[in-house]
Amino acid sequence: MRFCKPLYRKGRKTLFLKLMLLFVLVPLGELALLIEIGKAIGTLPTVAIVIVTGIIGSWLLKQQGIGTWRKFRGDLARGGFPGNTILEGVLILIGGAFLLTPGVVTDALGFVLLIPPGRKLVLKGLKAYLRRKYDLDDLISIAGDDDSEDSGDSYDPAMRV
Q: What's the CA gap between 43 and 89, in Å, rounded?
């Protein structure tokens, strides 16, 4: 006799398919694309592209990560809620993971997430998605909806009633 039911019994097949797509089909597609690029421009230039994007991506990841960490600490020091900064940090982490995966498409996605204008565009879409999917209007409004770097406002929990 079972005492507790799985939370998402119906969604397990969907999750399995998504994970299979992510961990099997994407690397296979990337490998096929790298082979085609190698046929078109040669093996050494293809390997050079992979190495150069890795070096540039690592440097960019470090710079953006340090900048976001400083922004996070500054938000906390001012008494503000670092919601956007946390979301940006997660996007930087995902961008770094994309850059760890060898391939052209994943590198492009990683660079989009590491370059501030691309990250801001993805952040805007992510917040819109979260609003539609979940009832998180309060959380996302705390995270801020302005496009400015620093609004200068700090979050005061006593004012939120």
A: 35
